[in-house]
Amino acid sequence: MKKLILSLKIVSSFLLGALCTVGILLYLRDITIDPLKYTFKIYHVYFCITMLLLPIFRVTHEKWFNSSEEYVSPRGKALQQHHADIANQYKGGRWSTKGVRVNPYEYTTPYTLSYDSSLDWIYTVVKKICLSLLFILAAPLFYLAEMFLKS
C-alpha cells in the first residue's frame, strides 16, 4: 500500500512538473497553440531534466512543498485574539448577568462563518505550483540549499 501511495505521489508530481514546464514554454513562446508548433532550444534540455527530478525532490523533501500549519483567516485570528483578551481580563469574580452583554452566537460555535478550510486547500495547491515553478527554473539553488541545510 505504501508503494502504491508513493508511486501515485511520484506520478502526480511528474504531471505537475510537466504542466509547469509546458506553462513556462508557452510563456516563452517556444510552444504555440494556434499553429501547433514547437521550437527546440538548448535550455529545454534543462527544463526536461528538472521536470524529471521534481518528483524525486518532492518525495524526499515533502515538508518543503506541504504546509503543516492550517490556514486561519484574519477573521478567525481576530476571534482567537478576542477570546484570549477576554480570558486575560477575567478577574475571578462571581458570575453575574447584571450589566453583562453577551453575544448569543458566541455559545453556538467557537468558529467564524468563513471559508478557512477551502482557503487552506487553495493555499496548499498554489504553494505547490509556485514551488514547482521555482524548482524548474532554479533547481541547482534548491540542491545547494539542501546541501547547506544538511551541514
Automatic annotation (TrEMBL):
Q: Which UniProt key words apply to this protein?
A: Membrane, Transmembrane, Transmembrane helix
Give the protein name, as stated in the record: Uncharacterized protein
Instruction: Kindly indicate whether the keyword Membrane belongs to this entry.
Output: yes
Q: TM spans, by residue? A: 6-28, 40-57, 121-145
